[in-house]
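Changelog-adjacent note: as of this version, every example in the card shows the full chain rather than a window. The one below runs 502 residues end to end.
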Amino acid sequence: MHYVSLIIEFVRGRPTVAFWTVALTQAALWTLMPALFYSAPPGDVPLLLAIGHEFVLGSYLGPPLAFWLGELAFRVGGSFSLYALAQACIVFTYWAVFTLGRRIVGTRHAVLAVLLMVGIAAFAVPSPNFGPAILAAPLWALALLHYWRAVGDGERGYWFLLALDLGLLLLANYVGLILIALMLVFTLASPRGRAALAHPEPWLAVLPFIIVIFPHLAWLKGARDLVVGGLNETVSGKLSPGVWFCLALVASHLGLGVLVAFATGWPRRRKERAPLIDRNPVDLFGRWFVYFFAVMPMASAIAIVFVNGRLGPLDRVAPLVVLSGLAVVVAAGNRVPVYRERIVSFTWLGLLVAPPAIIVLGIVALPWMASVNLKVTQPAKAEATFFANSFQRRTGQPLAYVTGDAELAPLIALGSPTRPHVYFDWAPQRSPWASAADIRQHGGLLVWAAAENSRTAPPMLKSEFPDMVPEVPRSFPRAIQGLLPLIRLGWAVQRPQGAAQP
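Full-length structure tokens:
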């Protein structure tokens, strides 16, 4: 009797239930894991919230939508809401790909595409680090879905939803320009696309698109140098941006490649049996649609990075790979045999569960094994509470401004009860909502990483605030200290003008 795994039977018998089970399980894992085990937000989240707290129409990091939504989520439910927002973006991405796949390859093969997306690292490991790329992924996928409905299915009302998708995508990440350009190329190159342009809806949809992006365009007119300067920053490291980007794309697809390799059963015996998952034939237009929008975004991004020599908004690959799983399923044919389904099932479960489990294991074990300072183990709440309380005791006023180290200042502002403004002492032009004069007038906290118990402040900070008096560095333990040294932070209180000295 031939063994058929439960997952395969689930996909063949209850594909829609299988989809929601997969999507919600992954979302729950990547929401609960950081909420329970991270003592500080990952990656650039503190900086994102420092900018989002100001609700500006844009920043040197690009359009404002991700910053606004991140700030609103944090105000509603703290870090947990922010992690939940990131996973909601991943679930919506999966849903859009699943819905698009149902219309092109049928429900069963659409589920296979989503199952393969679990093997794309861009939708798993970096997902708690909410930012423009994570928000761009569902908007990118929704735009492809609504474009298919408008052009592929001929439902002309979807042009207006497509315009909204693309407008919001540009408000989330400038990477949306790649999708817009590719949609124009595909529309003009395909007979069905050119026929769609004969109707008024695609032309009328330009108006809501412009309305959505107009406020940011008006802001961008006066802030072009600021944005260009931010986009032209290079990533430090030994690899060139082009090589780094190519390696990131390959690494992101390794899990998908492993699943495909096991499912094809290579090398296999000639008479080896495998369960089949069938679909109706895919027409030529649908096939080329999937291949084009799966391959060309990555190819275009690679060309841009190599020509420009900078990553810009392409430092995260999530929106570029949303159709990779669906492209593999389309290429697999109308009858997909799944060889060695037991190994495939366990490998897929491993890709789903192992990454968050490994991160938890690393948080617990690495402090006892190596001198690795994980950002997510920084005692952010304890640090922020101490400094906020110290400032208020010394000045009689709530903490309103924080500056100093580029990583510590946003982190302490994030954990402080009053959510102070962050002045970018390291790049003042990038924080137009605050200035050194504001800190001298209203008071603020200056903070930096300290070596041992030295009171020496960074020269740049000392030159901007010459009357600062550094305090004895404060030490903070981690939740799991292990063999690591204590975290020592240098600090000083800049008193408001006219405040009495101690």
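Structural remarks: The chain has two domains: 6-361, 378-494.
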